[in-house]
Amino acid sequence: MVARQIALRAGGDYGHVGLQGPMDPPSRRKPDSIIVLETAAWETVSEESRFAFEKVVDVLRDAGIRIYNRRISTVVAAAEDALLTANSLAGQINIWEDQWPLNTYARDMDASKLSEVMRRRLQSASDMSQEKYGACLRERATVRGIYETLATVGEACLTLSASGPAPVGLGSTGDPSFAIPASLLGVPAVSVPGMLVENLPVGLQLMGFRGKDSSLFSVAAFFDDIVAQLHAKCASRRY
User: Fold this and answer.
1) Do 44 and 51 touch, CB atoms closer than 8 A?
2) 209, 20 in Cβ contact below 8 A?
């Protein structure tokens, strides 16, 4: 509701209308079907995290929800293939668009205060051509179009929020690979707590479709029930 009120008063980012939909939060809704997306980041997922994720999928099936994945749907398989380059594509777009603020810091302020990572990004942006950036934007548009066809198969996509529990220490927040596809696609995404891996929390991620934020929120609210059922089954030693 807060985000909706902000969008009503201030709009979205430049060129974007901002969050739309009802002013009141939608009620929870059980979806008829869910799409399971692995994405290219799946190869980084530990066996423990995969096992925990499959338990969630089993609970969804037990609740009477149809599950689609790349092995049983050609539409899902096409979307998975299109997202294989999401990390590199998003990285190239971000590098080009970062060069203006980074150049401001480097030329008008103190370049030595930029981190080594940011200096490398600035150099990469300088080496990149406008034509390459345009090609990246066209590729992104193609990937977004392919993803949108998933709306004919399921009401939301389910994947992980991260490949495993948060790393120890303050040196890193972990691998962001599971967060990149939704950003590249420009679709709403919600992280739902509920899984435990090595007795530490790992989130589930629900991805929706452009302009259908409220629909995704209503499905995400239903996952409170799914998480409760999962915990009950774990407590009864069914898993």
Assistant:
1) no
2) no
Task: Judge whether residue 123 has pLDDT over 90.
Answer: no
Residue identified by tokens 């080496």 is 127
3-state DSSP assignment of residue 96 = helix
What is the rounded average pLDDT for all residues in the chain? 86
Phi first, then psi, for residue 4 (nearest 5°) are -65, -40
Q: What is the pLDDT of residue 173?
A: 75
Band (102; pLDDT cuts 50, 70, 90): confident
DSSP 25-81: PPPP---SEEEE---GGGGG--HHHHHHHHHHHHHHHHTT-EEE-TTT-HHHHHHHH
Q: Please tell me the pTM assigned to this model.
A: 0.85
Percent helix, strand, coil in the chain, to 5, is 55, 10, 30
pLDDT number for residue 149: 97
pLDDT tens track for 175-207: 889 999 999 999 999 998 878 888 888 889 999
Task: Give the amino acid at 213.
Answer: D
Give CA–CA dist 54/49, Å, rounded.
9
Q: Edge to edge, what strands does the sheet with 157-160 contain?
A: 66-68, 33-36, 157-160, 200-207, 189-197
Contact of 179 with 207, CB cutoff 8 Å: no
CATH of 29-85+146-235, one of 3.40.50.2300, 3.30.465.10, 3.90.1300.10, 3.40.50.150: 3.90.1300.10
Question: What is d(CA 191, CA 131) in angstroms, rounded to the nearest whole number?
Answer: 35
